[in-house]
Design a protein that fits this description.
This protein is mainly beta. The protein has one domain: Clam (outer membrane lipoprotein receptor (LolB), chain A), CATH 2.50.20. It is about 5% helix and about 45% strand. The protein has two helices and 18 strands. Strands 5, 6, 7, 8, 9, 10, 11, 12, 13, 14, 15, 16 and 17 form a 13-stranded mixed sheet that branches. A hairpin with a 5-residue loop joins strand 6 and strand 7.
Length: about 270
């Protein structure tokens, strides 16, 4: 699900940044980038015991909230898959991002964790097979401002629904899928930059599954030339999974502490 906050856009589900830059402003996150920096998604990690939330209103399998989104720029320049896991009991978060080139080659595979009661932020770089290559850790005690901003942008099913139920949206009818399911369409309009110099009128349409109250897909349109054109699209899946004990495990690689204000976490 694409989220618009102020003049920024982020991916709901990329709960934590693909890269966090610790600098004068404290934190610059990919998930709060301007439109031309928005990433896309496509994931390879297999999630056992996943049950699609759209299958039923009552889900009893697993307690870990799981979502997967696939984001694509209309011009093919960005393709990203992300997966997100959230434990409502422990408040642990994990987000995996797979970024692909326009020809389908994997550019980046990265896992970001918020663990240890929200006191540790860990970013692990992985190879194409998912094996850990390197890792960085930041402690809340060392960078409280970073964690304060991070916690404001964490996503879960409840915050996703709250966002979609805000007064910023206008109902614009329904759409029926090829499987015969009716989705409710909602729209919000705003202005933003589609590159460094071009400002455009934007229209974001979310297609809401009435059984879950969550977005099944979204479409973002831009009008910088007097004509509405598709800028990007995204499909989303939601469900619950079980944790085999490895889902939020970060001691799979040596973690290097973030040392100073100019260090980039996760690089």
């Amino acid at each position: 699900m694409i989220r618009k906050t102020g003049n920024k856009v982020k991916m709901a589900g990329i709960a934590m940044a693909a890269a966090l830059v610790i600098g004068g402003l404290g934190m610059t996150a990919v998930y709060a980038s301007t439109l031309n920096d928005v990433v896309s998604k496509d994931s390879v990690v297999t999630v056992p015991n996943t049950q699609a939330m759209s299958d039923t209103k009552v889900i009893t399998q697993g307690t870990i909230q799981y979502s997967k989104g696939v984001y694509t720029r209309a011009d093919g320049s960005q393709n990203v898959t992300y997966e997100r896991w959230y434990n409502p009991e422990t408040k642990e978060n994990r987000s995996d991002i797979h970024e692909y080139s326009s020809d389908g080659q994997l550019i980046k595979f990265q896992s970001t964790y918020l663990t240890n009661g929200g006191n540790d932020l860990v970013i692990i770089q992985r190879d194409n097979n998912g094996e850990p290559l390197s890792g960085t850790i930041m402690k809340k005690a060392d960078q409280p401002a970073v964690f304060e901003k991070l916690e404001m942008n964490l996503d879960n099913f409840a915050s996703d629904k709250e966002y979609l139920n805000s007064d910023a949206w206008t109902s614009i009818g329904t759409e029926t899928t090829s499987e015969g399911k009716t989705l409710n369409k909602i729209l919000r309009s705003y202005q933003s930059y589609i590159n460094d110099t071009t400002q455009a009128d934007m229209q974001l349409i979310e297609f809401i599954d009435p059984d879950t109250g969550l977005s099944a897909k979204s479409e973002l349109y831009e009008n910088s030339t007097g004509e509405n054109k598709l800028f990007s699209s995204e499909t989303d899946d939601y469900g619950y999974v079980t944790d085999d004990g490895n889902l939020f495990k970060t001691d799979i690689v040596t973690l290097t502490p973030a040392q100073g204000p100019k260090e980039t976490l996760g690089k």
